[in-house]
Amino acid sequence: MNVRNSPKKVYLLHAAVIAGLFALNFILPEYHHGVLARVMVLAVFAMGYNILFGYSGLLSLGHAMFFSAGLYGAGLTVSHLGWGMAAGFAAGIVSGALLALVIGVLALRTTGVAFMIVTMMFAQVFYLLTLYFAEWTRGDEGFVLAQQARRIDLGDLHFNLTDPATRYMAALLLFSVVLLATLAIVRSAHGRVLVAIRENEERTRMLGYDTFANKLAAVVVSGVICAAAGAAYALLFGYIGSTFATVQYSILPLLWVLLGGAATTLGPIVGTLFMFYVVDITSGYTSAYLLIVGVALILLVLYFPKGILGTVRERWIRWLP
Amino acid sequence: MTPLLTTRDLRKNYGGLRAVDGVDFAIMPGEIRAVIGPNGAGKTTFVSLICGRVPPTSGQIVLDGNDITDLPAHDRVRRGIAYTFQITSVFSALSAYDNVALPVQRTLTGRSKGRLHAGVMSALERTGLADRADTTAGALSYGHQRLLEVAMGLALKPRLLILDEPTQGLSDGEIESFMQLAREIARDATVLLIEHNMQVVMELADRITVMNAGKILAEGTPEQIRANAEVQRAYLGTEA
Fold first, then answer.
1. Which coarse location class describes where this protein primarily resides (chain A) (predicted)?
2. What is the CATH number of the domain that holds B12?
3. Does the beta carbon of A204 lie under 8 angstroms from any beta carbon of chain B?
4. In this predicted structure, what is the pLDDT of residue B237?
5. pTM over 0.90
6. Closest by alpha carbon to B99, among A188, A199, A182, A54?
């Protein structure tokens, strides 16, 4: 990992990715344009997961609850309290932060397999709560945000989040902010401590670091990013349902990150995009598309065990962060 | 002169085994102290109690007049107790530079890339690893990994540096340069050393503490220890 000596290349690469996604807004046909907007928001979810799993080495199986905390935090305040888009988004993020703080304090008393199980159980509790309070959440069926509520007015500027181009740009903005934030964290002193905890927690402790406090910070940052993705999903696509709180949505970010390359800044977007299109293309040909997805995953694990970008970094581009 | 660190009636039991059994110990600032004793004498457990990796069953540890018995390990490191592991415990996936940057950045207040870099390079230079800064720690030779371990301890700017069998597995040449390094470290830190190599102990230590079965058997200068009949029976006789 020789990021230290090539910071310029790193910044250029990330700027190029963001510029490329910006350009695609004007080129892509309608269908793929919509797909990419959605993938960018889900990639934010994956990036949040990557902070905890990839960099800090904590495997959570409950991240659906952070995504859903943002989803419901934004969705419920907008639909029931009549809050605006910005306030709703903030409510989603605050919900995620508080939840992550509480869950972190409790779950970090465990490690390894126990940590996986505890996070999964908490996520299950969260899912059941969304069903229990069906009066507001409408449970499985979910609810839709009214079209006229999904507008942002800034003086004379009016943004309509149901308009595809606005939606794409909003998704790109969030994606870019989180991508650069991830890069900053990874290159910071704190990022180095997180990697050290992943590699050898006992040694890190004996260098004078409070590893519990550092891991808790990682859980909260991760939870906030995932909640931001959830809140954006609610506001941009207008649908809030308990499906997003199921265990499936805890497994998906793990898959995306593993595919793209754990502990790489760009791995989450690569993995999410790849997975989305594998499912999309194969389901066009056969109803047994999950079979093909499974085979694709097995091939990937065999030939790219560290994920796509993880393997690229190992073999070719050593400076990839 | 008051001791830098003292322990009073320090005990650690593992079930029925008394690994450390009522140790009263004191180390003066600036001293190089070696702890020797046969395998299973409780040396590693004893220094683990001092650095906080293991909680004591009873007794007291005092650093500079402050009771640190109940402090967590990371707080003790912040107060100047650094421990280098007996089994090499570097971050093998990270570069040598990043390994040393971790302790250095902890001692820096505020953010300054320049000072971080200077601190890292100075610790690497003192241990002779400067030209290997970008090598992955896991790819370094065993001797160099031991030195990296020492560099990490040094980078903490400790007041008490605990070295647990630092020369184990090193070649004669490497041992020679290690002893030079240890003397240099002792100019601004106190060194507590667990060591099996008698030549290193005799040449390096100001004083020697001999442990056996969890207790302190004898303590004194190298000459006194060499002349002590009880020590010879318990330890030196079997080794030499």
1. membrane
2. 3.40.50.300
3. yes
4. 55
5. no
6. A199
The whole-angstrom separation of Cα A94 and Cα A105 is 17
Please give, rounded to a whole number of angstroms, the shortest distance from the CA of A130 to a CA of chain B: 40
Work out the mean pLDDT of chain B and round it to a whole number. 89
d(CA A71, CA A69): 5
Let me know whether B107 and B72 are in one domain: no
pLDDT digits 0-9 by tens, B146-162:
889 889 988 988 999 99
Q: Report chain A residues whose CB lies below 8 A from the CB of B103.
A: 207-208
**B114 in any annotated domain:** yes
Query: Could you tell me if residue B85 is inside a domain?
Result: no
Residue indicated by tokens 């791995």: A267
Report whether pLDDT(A68) > 90.
yes
Sort out which chain B residues have CB atoms less than 8 A from A5's CB and list them.
Answer: 134
The 8-class DSSP code of residue A55 comes to I
Q: What is the pLDDT of residues A16-67, one digit of tens each?
A: 999 999 999 999 998 999 999 999 999 999 999 999 999 999 999 999 999 9
Q: B173 and B187 in one domain? A: yes
What one-letter code names the amino acid at B108?
L
- Are A196 and B102 inside 8 Å of each other by CB? yes
Contact with chain A for residue B117, Cβ under 8 A: no
Domain coverage including residue B113: 90-157
Query: Which residue type sits at A236?
Result: L
Nearby residues of B116 by Cβ (< 8 Å), 6 or more positions away: A189, B101, B104, B105, B108
Co-location of B142 and B180 in the same domain: no
Determine the straight-line distance between the first and last CA of chain A, rounded to whole angstroms. 7
Instruction: Say yes or no for a CB contact (<8 Å) between B106 and A209.
Output: yes
Residue type, A48: G
Alpha-carbon distance B215 to nearest alpha carbon in chain A (angstroms): 26
Select from A185, A249, A187 the least CA-distant residue to A217. Answer: A185
A104 vs A108: CA distance, rounded Å: 6
A:B CB pairs within 8 Å = 66
Tell me which CATH code domain A3-246 carries. Answer: 1.10.3470
DSSP-assigned states of every residue in B144-195:
HHHHHHHHHHHHT--SEEEEESTTTT--HHHHHHHHHHHHHHTTTSEEEEE-
The Cα–Cα gap between A166 and B156 comes to: 51
* Beta-carbon separation of A189 and B105 below 8 A: yes
